[in-house]
Amino acid sequence: MCPADTDAKASKLALFIIFTSNLPLAGKLYKTVTIHLRKTMTETNIITSELRTEPNIGKRILAGFIDYLIIYVFFFIYIYAFGEPNAEGEYSVNGLPALVPIIFWGIMTVGLEIGLGATLGNSLAGIKAIPKSGINRKLTFGESFKRHLLDPIDMFFFGLIGIVTIKNTDKNQRLGDTWGNTIVVRNENLTEEKSE
Q1: How does it sit in the membrane (predicted)?
Q2: How far is residue 154 CA from its own chain's centroid?
């Protein structure tokens, strides 16, 4: 027998002894992790099933109207104040200053949602966007950005696309909510027990 074979057999024997002597410990660890995961999944399912999602069409339209009224008023005032008139008498902003309205849109939608938990319109309408899991927490940047990136599609033709998708999804989600894995609920349906 060559020394390499002896070393390999010794290593295998040592590993076997180490693992078999700790097998009860590994079994306990597996059992503990499994119980914890089952408990967490059960709690998550209870939270989601208890949390009532409703279409809230009127509140959502009001919230969107408030948010985008503020955004459009800022947009028009900014263009008029800092824009340059062209031959037709219309104003336009070019170059780097043209990013200001886009940044303002981001702050008013995504920024407020991830910073304060809701946009100004949602806060005034008494609704809040939360993750689809039902956990009462602020949205992440990705969740909020996805929701609002599809606002123009959801609001197309006086919000018809958004209304149709809200009415025809099991969690009353518009396209932006579906892509962002979020739901919109009334503030009174949220409790601190559902917080992380």
Answers
A1: Multi-pass membrane protein
A2: 17
Q: What is the mean pLDDT of residues 167-182?
A: 93
Q: Phi and psi dihedrals of 7, rounded to 5? A: -65, -40
Q: What is the pLDDT of residues 41-91, one digit of tens each?
A: 444 444 445 566 888 899 999 999 999 999 999 999 999 999 999 888 889
CB-CB contact of 187 with 128 (8 Å)? yes
Helix (H, G, I), strand (E, B) or coil at 83: coil
Which two tokens mark 120? Answer: 């100004």
Q: Residue 195 gets which letter from DSSP?
A: B
Rounded to two decimals, what is the model's pTM?
0.69
Q: Which residues pair with 183 in a beta bridge?
A: 130
Q: Sign of torsion, CA 182 184 190 192?
A: positive
Query: Inter-axis angle of helices 156-167 and 57-82, to 10 degrees?
Result: 150
Helix (H) or strand (E) holding 131: strand 127-131
Token pair of 146 as six digits: 């996805």
Structure tokens at 116: 């304060």
